[in-house]
Amino acid sequence: MSKKKAFVEHRKHKRFKVKSGAVAIEFNTAFEYIHIGQIMDISKSGLAFSYIDIDGELAAPFELDIVAALDGFYLKNVPFKTVWGSPVAGHSAFIFLERKQRGVQFGEMTPHQISRLDYFLHNYTVR
After folding, report:
1. What is the gyration radius of the CA atoms in the chain, in angstroms?
2. b/e string for 94-103 if b means 16 or more Cβ within 10 A?
3. What is the pLDDT along the chain (127 residues), one digit of tens a residue?
4. What class is the 16-126 domain?
5. Which residue of 21, 28, 84, 103 could cross-link 59, Cys pair, CB 3.0 to 4.6 Å?
6. How many angstroms separate the first and last alpha carbons of the chain?
7. How far is CA 89 from CA 17, 37, 50, 52, 92, in A?
C-alpha cells in the first residue's frame, strides 16, 4: 500500500502560463531596482517569476511592476508579499550568478490596477 500523499491545490485562482516578453520588476523603498525577471505564471492573486540574483537579497522589496515589452503594457506599484523563494537547479552561464524563483501574493489593489491585471491575464497568458 502506498503512503504517497495527494497534492491539494490551495490557490483561489487558476494560474496561467505567461507569453514570452513579460517581466516583473521589484523595487526597494529607495525605488532602486532589486530584481527583474521573466514571469513564469500569473493569476488574479499572484505570480511567479525567475531572475538572476546578482547582489543577493539586499532589502525587502517595496513595490512590484509588471511590464510586457512587446506593446508597452505597464502595471506599476502593485502591492505584494513574497510567499516563497528558491534557487533554480542547473548551471548558470556565470559561476557567480545565481538563478532564483520567487512567488508573490498580490495585496489590495486599486480598481485601475485590477482592471489592468485583468487585461494582462486576458492578453498575455496562454489559456
Report:
1. 16
2. eeeeebbebb
3. 556 655 455 657 899 999 989 999 988 777 777 889 999 999 999 999 999 887 666 567 678 999 998 888 999 999 999 899 888 876 555 556 788 999 999 999 999 999 999 999 999 999 8
4. mainly beta
5. 28
6. 37
7. 20, 16, 12, 12, 9
